[in-house]
Each structure stands twice: as C-alpha cells, then as structure tokens.
Design goal:
Order of helices and strands: EEHHHEHHEEEEEEEEEEEEEEEEE
Number of helices: 5
Amino acid sequence: MNIIKLTSKKLVFINTGSNQNEYAKYERGIIKMNSNSNNVKTKKSSGSIIGFLSTSIILFIVFSLGFLPVVIAGRILLFFIAFNQLWHFFLLPFFIYMGIVITIFYQLLISGLVIHLFNIRYEPGVYDYSYRDKTSFRWILVCVLYTPMRKILEIFPMGFMKNVYYRLLGMKIGDNTLVGGTIMDPCLTEIGDNCTMGLYAVIYGHIQVYEDEKLILGRIKIGNNCVIGAGAFIMPGAVVEDDVKIATGAVVTKGQILKKGKIYAGIPAKEIKKERR
C-alpha cells in the first residue's frame, strides 16, 4: 500500500510495501515540472531585459536628435552675443522661450518621422503582453516615443503641428476636424471630416489585462460631423457613425456601435430619445 502525506513544505510519498517505482516516477515528474517552469521564467526574464534595453537605447537616440537643433542654435547665438552687457540679459527670456518652441517642434518631428519611416505600427487583436511578442513590442515602443510628446501636446497645443504629428503616427484625420482631447493609439484611430473632440475626452485603442498578461487592441472609427463632449471615453472597437453627438462624460464601451444622427449620454453610453411635443 502507498500513502501520500502532506507536510508543511511538500508532498511526501510513503511506500509501505508494493510498487517502489511509483515514488521515483513521481519525484522525476516534479523535478521536470520545476525545471520547465524555471526555463520559462528565465526566457521571460531575458526577453524583458533585452526589450527594456532596446527601447531605452532607441528612446535615448531619438530624443538626443530632438535636442540637437536647439544645442546648435544656442552655440550660434553665443558666437554673436557674449552676454557681457546688461541689456543682453533682457533678451534671455525670449531666447529661452524660442529654445523651448524649437525643442518641442523637433522632438515632435523626429519622433514622428522615426515611427512613420520605420512603420512602427500595430494591428487589432489579442496579444501576449511581453517584449517577446512582436506586436506588443511595437506597441511598447510607440508608447515610449509617443507618451512624452502626448503630455507635451496637452500643455502646448502647437496648432497645425498636432494633426501633422498624429498623421505621422498613422492616424486618419479628416478636414476641418479639431482634436482637443487625448488619442491613446493614433494608428488605430480614424476621425472623419468636420468633427470636434472636447477637452479631456480620451479615445482608447488598447486594454491591458494584467491578470492574464494580455494586450487587447481594437480599431476606433468615428464618422463625419460628430461631436465628442469633454471628458468622454471611447473604448477599443467602437464605431461612431456620421452626425453622432456624444455627451460630456459619456463612456462608449468596447465594440459599441453608435447609430447615425443619434445623441448618446451616460455610462455606458445610451441613446437619448427626443421628446415629442
């Protein structure tokens, strides 16, 4: 007879007579499972380290190139103005302001061109949230390059440059459209003509499921002549047809379709029916 005894740390197989090979088989199985588990963890760890180093190096190179023009401009300025007279220092605030504008412009231009020229984009789907997954790595890389610029654009709108930057990142923007909110995934977002997106509105093209280590990506399509109220949220896979109005603070859920010419409000967004008079 064989007995399996549970101790505080492990299962102990006690052989009381017959079939002495069972314990050896059991022990080999446990060792093999632990070995496989350790191999998987080692691969994930090495992949994460390589991925982190890769993104860090790319980030350093791109942002260094973005600072290069203002460094050159500063060096030229010092050649003409030595700042050895009092009135020179009255010009200093103007030069600092111009330096900030030049830096922001070139950071947007260079990071946008890198993403555009190297075609760093991703498609809708469900992926493993890991550096080892090619699509997830592309998404992480875009986030690393785009997030600082997105934060800057929230402070300095930069006028027409904002839409140019979004187009470099793969976003489709129609004519006469104002994007006042935040676009989280430009390459998965499409907005038609004559649309207005209010301040603090957010369009999400992704959902991170940390428990399952999954990344869900979905395309968002917004038609023509639409109004997105301030503070509204639009989730992945949503479709907003032409002439739709979304109220302030409404939440358009994942995969939801808003019908043409309707008005939606609430959490989740529901159609507001006009009262008959």
